[in-house]
Prior knowledge:
This protein is of the alpha/beta class.
Amino acid sequence: MPSSLPLRYGANPQQGPARVFMPSDADLPITVLNGAPGYINLLDALNSWQLVRELKAALNLPAAASFKHVSPAGVAVANPLSDALKKAYFVDDLELSPLATAYARARGADRLCSFGDFIALSDTVDVSTAKLIAREVSDGVIAPAYEPAALEILKNKKQGKYAVVQIDPSYEPSSIQEVREVFGVRFEQRRHDRLVTPSDFTNIVTTKKDLPAPAIRDLTIAWITLKYTQSNSVCFVADGQAIGVGAGQQSRIHCVRLAGQKADLWFLRQHPAILELPFRSAIKRPDRDNAIDQFLRDDVTPNEKADWSNIFDHTPRQLTLDEKQQWLSKLNSVTLGSDAFFPFRDSIDRAAASGVKYVLEPGGSTRDDIVIQAANEYGMTMIFSGVRLFHH
């Protein structure tokens, strides 16, 4: 493998020349099997690969991530899909392998944000997964290996320009220190190599102490997802997948509001009335995603709204606020992870509105007692991990 790979440009077209390379002429751990991944593609690839590798190691399940701009839009492990989710994710016409199921979940968490994603897969890409990727709008994929037939399917995507990257699954950085340069100034720190351990979930600080196996699985997903999400960040998880990620916000409550809104929309997409929307047969999946988003949101201005007559065979009735609230009241047993402590109880109040039952955060705020009290009022189980997960 080469030690250097030239890129078309950096983060923007005016930032050239650009390349990725290894120090001391060591071989790159990646091989480009097809296409020409860009600077941001490879940032997404290397961050997302670490996430799915760690998730697979922690839960021993195939894992997938859908990345956009160095944060996950969705993360999931292989867990069978309900009929409602199959329909909401537009995969009810496919036979899905476990790996394909993980990606269907990761892609389906936030289909608007996953548009044009970079995909990371923990296992060898099979034909089932390749067929699913082939029909979605995506920039590229990274995985440890590809079945020959799956690779041929992916090579035909985007007129043969789809980026297919293979990574050596045994690769580990040679140095425990990582270095970056900003404005000519170099920063150095220890690489964040601390792994999730069962002890991270033992310090339960609320009156309620129950932590069933599905909750531990979802806590693990939240913990590892946050480790590779741009801070500030929070993550809502349910049923073995992220259902709402709030990343890169300056305020903790804004993270929670953003992620909670995404979680609500994820659940509303499974409402029977939404599953049966009368789309015209020629309407493509991305346009359906946009229409569903507009159809469900209460803050879309009249000028933003699409012309329903061009999208639906007949204009369906929109759900009332009461109908939405009644449906959302069924959302429960959700896990919320936070990459740093909650400084106020407002995040817990907002989380309760989206069915959060389990909360994982580092603790350490001067107002921890107020936050714990809020969790107790809602009957939540709250864990203090003692581990901050900032990622920049």
